[in-house]
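User: Hey, my collaborator sent me this sequence without any context and asked if I could get a structure. I don't really work with proteins. Can you help?
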Amino acid sequence: MADEKHWATGAQGEAILAEFLAKRCHDVLLLHDRRMPHSRANIDHIAVGASGVYVIDTKRYRGKIEVLSPLFGAPKLKIAGRDQTKLLDGLGKQVAVVQAVLKNAAPDVAVHGCLCFVAPEGFMADSGLPVLRTLKIKGYPLYYPRRLARRLNRSGPLTPEQTRQIHAALAEKLTPA
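Assistant: No problem. I've predicted the 3D structure and written it out in structure-token form, which is a compact way to encode the shape of the chain:
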């Protein structure tokens, strides 16, 4: 029962972010809820814009989000005081899948991974992230929806035709979950 509640909470966060990005990212092509090959896991969102391809893992947690960088050892992602560093392993696998799909179709295109935190009360509420800077861990930025939308809307080297081709290749290889 608890697993179903967590799944429903996560799915609602994904839907909130999908709607938000559709309204805020006009020249960005989006794919939502894509199946990972040979896995029960999914990719929440893939965005293709002028600045590259973005694999977005949506998270919906309560509490302060921080990155702790100890003097010795690997950095840790703490959410509400709990170690959630394992979330980055899943994101890394998702990025690798998207890179593999694009290996032949668009080998030189940058594929970026990120976590996007949607507050349990909705995207307008405090997400627990700092407002004035973007936290990063293992090379992955941690965004709230508005900052993510700004990032996706940046200009870059890809033309509208290239973004359409990349989007089509991803849509063909990564089927809806």
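In plain terms: The longest strand covers residues 42-49. You can pass these tokens on to your collaborator as they are.
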